[in-house]
Fold this sequence. Notes:
Aminopeptidase, 33% helix, five-stranded mixed beta sheet, single chain
Amino acid sequence: MEILFRKATLDDVEEIVNLCNECFNENTSIDYATRVFKETMNDKNQIYLIGVADNKIVAHTKITVIPTIYEKMNTYSILNHVCVKPEYRRHNIATKMLIECEKISKENNCVVMELWSNNFRQPAHECYKSYGFVVNDAKFFSKEII
């Protein structure tokens, strides 16, 4: 399957939101996503990557590059909202997207890529493991501050 990966533009936001809402049972509004995208679109450390096939967005992830002052951590990237449109799965699109993420991470001098994935996404976890990701012996903690 022919797929083109590129950085998202403002014109892509609605299609990205619709894809993520479908894949993650989210309810993000187009207005909210557009506002945040406009605020961050010039931040070189926040990269929205899309995969286009059949003239539509069928894959997406956000890459956040995090430079640190700590030698061991160095600069690393975090991937989140890694998704492929359900009817396009099982065509190695996620693996191709991870290859592109690794290329972008290397271009940004990252020494490691990490990703966040919900526990219920077991098929996705198998893809990540087959690509070489390992489950760290750590917990991801969250605290709402609203």
